[in-house]
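Dear support,

We are seeing what looks like truncated structure output for some complexes. This example has four components. We would appreciate it if you could run it in full and send us the complete token output so we can diff it against ours.
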Amino acid sequence: MSIQSVAAKAGVSVATVSRAFNFPDKVTPATRELVERVARELHYVPNASARTLRTQRSRALGVVLPTLLNPTFAECLQGIAHAAVAGGYAIIPVTTGYQLDEEERAVHLLLAGNVDGLILVVSNPSTSAALDRLRSTGTPYVLAYNRHPDHPCVTVDGEAAVADAVARLVLLGHRRIAMVSGTLAASDRAQQRYRGYQKGMADAGLDAPALIEVPFVESAVDLLAQLLQAKVRPTALVCSNDLLAIRSIRAAHLSGLDVPGDLSVVGFDGIALGEDLTPALTTIAQPNSEIGRRSVELLVQAMAGGAALQAEASLLLPCFFRDGESCAAAAI
Amino acid sequence: MSIQSVAAKAGVSVATVSRAFNFPDKVTPATRELVERVARELHYVPNASARTLRTQRSRALGVVLPTLLNPTFAECLQGIAHAAVAGGYAIIPVTTGYQLDEEERAVHLLLAGNVDGLILVVSNPSTSAALDRLRSTGTPYVLAYNRHPDHPCVTVDGEAAVADAVARLVLLGHRRIAMVSGTLAASDRAQQRYRGYQKGMADAGLDAPALIEVPFVESAVDLLAQLLQAKVRPTALVCSNDLLAIRSIRAAHLSGLDVPGDLSVVGFDGIALGEDLTPALTTIAQPNSEIGRRSVELLVQAMAGGAALQAEASLLLPCFFRDGESCAAAAI
DNA sequence: CTGTTAGCGCCTTCAT
DNA sequence: ATGAAGGCGCTAACAG
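Here is the complete output from our reference environment:
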């Protein structure tokens, strides 16, 4: 079922068959149709490996993500997948479970797999050994969700967005506003959002209580419930992501608190599911699917140009405060 | 950076380098170490395309899924990804958006991409043109979530599980139990679950009201809210998947109904998020990640044996009723 | 416009 | 245990 068989059956050379597929204009309409017909009859499908070997282009993109269990990244991957297919690229996703050594393994794996380019969400661009390795190979790549002056990135201004969210809570009369985050060291996003929180509090002239850091997902609800039962508790929580926001709401209920009556909760990410919950999640919505799409577009464009992407190509997409039902005016 | 360079620098033949990597036992420990050292120095990485071209094995699996926006499939893909990496395979996922023609395109795409095997979640195995095409090529494949006597499948007994759930609702005193489903024609899973519902109702000697079919996700909540405001409304809803269950709960709230006080809701899928919601989702939990993992294992095993998978290899995994807070005894 | 041909990098007999 | 050489299927010069 090779190009040879098609050429033989059609009575032309392999070069003609190749041209008929890759440069239809460079062959007579008659021969092109002949070749196409024979190819169809033989169920001929070009061999991708042979083509890749010859052209040195695999038309495959590697994708490195923390996890697919967070809908944020699933939505992003969906966006990547669509854009990739549209651009004639296949994608090879690898998840790292937020582990640094897995990031390196993933990059190694994908590089060995001959991908033409990489989209990655890393823990922290500044300290990523995986990125160093990648850079030294010259393979085009783009970071999604990460933000760093030395790398091409597609993301949003999480810091400003959180500061804005805090300002809104203040306008609603909240004073004791706490922030809930996963392990701060595990992601630059978390750090940026935390900075935004601190800025927001400072701008409002409020003291920022200590960050509520929730290391393990399993114990998150219990830990939060405990905190909410303290004599002096926050009236509003700014959560570093929607999953934490959902768990915070659950913790509130377990503590006998009504959301938003007794406690306001703001998330971050804008997962689609949030809109179907009760209360509907108030959150800072990122364009997750678009982050994926734009990352692909940037990468494909760069690869077409032959050059690796520059940090200057970075994109800062808008995100917006999505009003839901988990936020209300502070009780007096 | 080819095997040639390594051979030259190490002063051995390319054959020896190849052996050092693929059959370490077939070379002297000394030469093996020499080759490994030189390879490391040169940052040599075997070229996957060349190897694939030569061996006719890509060590890549194609995955065809409806969507990643439903956490069910995201969880499954995560399971697939883990098992694939463990088995030395890369995965190439393609989503179809529940569209038949996309299924065919996906299969075509992946076949052209030289995958060694395919895992797919199709709309309906009985009517799938994509499967016919696939079968005729002899490429090993396995269906996930689908169930059909003529194909190798990895799934659960959704029919029995729903019948059991209905029985539990009946025990709680419910009589007016309705079923909520997406487009029935769009998936064999939905059909199986509906049959389970009908069976459960019949077993309890109850009349099954007409299926509540929700064609469009966007209008689901509105449609459901409308139904719940009828003079005679169900006291319990069995939903064909967790996303519908979540929307049903929202519709209930919008209608002023308390869940589970006024309305019990049972989902199907067991998405992880369900446990963090309030009320925690009562659902029929499938082992989504395991469905993915076992699919890969079956496929890899079959490919090692050289034969395509037989329908007899199908796996019916256990699923279980996961008690949450969205279900309670019927009000008298 | 079409054909001939030389590799792309690797594995794998077949010799040695 | 190691080396030499053919060829997997394809594309891209280069001829004609």
